[in-house]
TrEMBL record:
Gene3D superfamilies linked to this entry: Mur ligase, C-terminal domain, Mur-like, catalytic domain, NAD(P)-binding Rossmann-like Domain
Provenance organism: Nemorincola caseinilytica
Record's protein name: UDP-N-acetylmuramoylalanine--D-glutamate ligase
Pfam families (UniProt xref): Mur_ligase_C, Mur_ligase_M, MurD_N
NCBIfam families, per the entry: murD (TIGR01087)
Mur ligase central domain location: 114-293
Enzyme Commission number(s): 6.3.2.9
Compartments (UniProt record): Cytoplasm
Origin superkingdom: Bacteria
Length: 453
């Protein structure tokens, strides 16, 4: 797909941020673009399509138009098992993701791409902030901010920091970040991967598939799943590890030792106390090391790194401090939608905790957090429609397990059990769709309930 392939037919499946972004870029690059969405298109996306003179349909797919495409950009939310995708695959039409389509028009710009099961958004935002504070011409794209393709179409930059999901990586054919970061891998979205964890693992590692030795792959040395994969697969990029273990990388890398974060790159050292990091918790130390290494690769001076690390506040709904009421701290970690996220949240708590847990269960295995719950949790407040898995998992560990039906009710129940010096932690470990629109809605309702105490 090059610029001279004028008026070739490009079909975009899905009209949310990534699909509309690909459509706008395709139109700008001379494609004959048609957008097809099986559901209803949100008003802001419909308006963007109309402003750019892009043909679209909603509420179904006109398969004759879809199958007439020379190339198809598939939005990440569309599973392969849908009828439209089965017909597209059977027709043998090229399918790519929006990040792949954008990559083909990025020019000489450079890319830092971040993936992982947990911590992607915080690491992406921190990396972006490190570059922006240093005066770089940089954009925040992918699952956070504008889509990559839309950014290229409307305001191209010298640097792109992209949060990348496994779904976006599934349909790449040449996407090659200059710097790729893989934070961790825990079971998630297995319904999209034939319920095979190895398929999900392979999808995450696609972030480095097209990298060359001149590129960098920053990866968590402490993640057993990652280490097992690396033991049997070769990586072409220059691999740089970050770790909290005693197995400190001999060359470039990041590590925590005696309360200090150390980053070593190209023979130069950067270090600072973990207590000076404004984002707290062990998982955020991992995120900070990964972001810091990428920033050093990008050429950012150590003094600028230190300035940003000491003022970066993190993101809403990610271990977000809400308020202290009569000595009780309230923490919003609504983004903790799987058990591993709950583990990281609990691990960072240093006070007796009342845990608000539950939602749309994805077949959670709670054994991973049993030890931390036994050690730190005074009571569990359930916030799902079906809370039986939580009762079954923790009845022998926690004396008090209460069912509630709303964020308001959950906050009041938690507050009634809390004492001066305790913390109330919303870390649901589940999707939010049984009672809320999304994790943001859940977090906002939690914060509103806290403010109304």
């Amino acid at each position: 797909m090059s610029n001279n392939e004028t008026l070739k037919r490009l079909v975009i499946l899905g009209a949310a941020e990534s699909g509309v972004g690909a459509a706008i870029l395709g139109k700008a690059k001379g494609w004959n673009v048609f957008v097809s969405d099986g559901g209803k298109i949100k008003p802001q996306f419909k308006e963007a399509l109309e402003q750019n003179g892009i043909a679209y349909e909603e509420g179904g797919h006109s398969m004759d138009r879809v199958l007439a495409a020379d190339s198809i950009v598939k939005s990440p939310g569309i599973p392969e098992k849908t009828d439209v995708m089965k017909k597209v695959r059977a027709a043998g039409i090229e399918v790519c993701s929006e990040i792949e389509f954008g990559y083909r028009y990025k020019g000489d710009s450079r890319i830092i791409a971040i993936t992982g099961s947990n911590g992607k958004s915080t690491t992406t935002m921190l990396t972006y902030t490190l570059l922006k504070d240093a005066g770089y011409d940089v954009a925040l794209t992918g699952n956070i901010g504008y889509s990559f393709a839309r950014q290229i179409a409307e305001r191209p930059c010298e640097w792109y920091v992209i949060e990348v999901s496994s779904f976006q990586l599934d349909d790449i054919h040449s996407f090659r970040p200059d710097v790729a970061i893989l934070l961790n891998i825990t079971p998630d979205h297995l319904d999209r991967y034939e319920y095979k964890f190895e398929n999900y693992i392979a999808s995450k590692f696609r972030i480095t598939q097209y990298q060359k030795s001149t590129d960098h792959f920053i990866v968590n040395q402490d993640d057993k799943v990652i280490q097992e994969y690396l033991a049997t697969h070769s990586i072409h990029a220059t691999t740089i590890f970050f770790t909290m273990s005693n197995n400190i990388p001999e060359n470039d890398g990041g590590f925590i030792d005696d309360g200090m974060m150390h980053i070593r790159y190209n023979g130069e050292y950067f270090d600072m106390s973990i207590h000076d990091l404004t984002i707290k918790g062990k998982h955020n130390q991992y995120n900070s090391m990964a972001a810091g290494i990428s920033a050093r690769i990008a050429g950012i001076r150590k003094e600028k790194l230190r300035e940003t690390f000491t003022r970066f506040k993190g993101l809403a709904h990610r271990l977000e401090y809400v308020a202290t009421i009569r000595g009780v701290d309230f923490i919003n970690d609504s983004k903790a939608t799987n058990v591993n996220s709950v583990w990281f949240a609990l691990e960072s708590m240093d006070k007796p905790t009342i845990l608000i847990l539950g939602g749309q269960d994805k077949g959670n295995d709670y054994t991973e957090i049993l030890a931390l719950v036994r050690q730190k949790v005074k009571a569990i407040i359930c916030l799902g429609v079906d809370n039986k898995p939580i009762h079954d998992a923790f009845a022998h560990v926690v004396d008090t397990i209460i069912d509630t039906t709303s964020a308001h009710e959950a906050v009041h129940a938690a507050y009634s059990y809390a004492e001066n010096g305790d913390v109330v932690l919303l870390a649901p470990g589940c999707a939010s769709f049984d009672r809320f629109n999304n994790f943001e809605d859940r977090g906002e309702q939690f914060k509103e309930a806290v403010r109304n105490l």
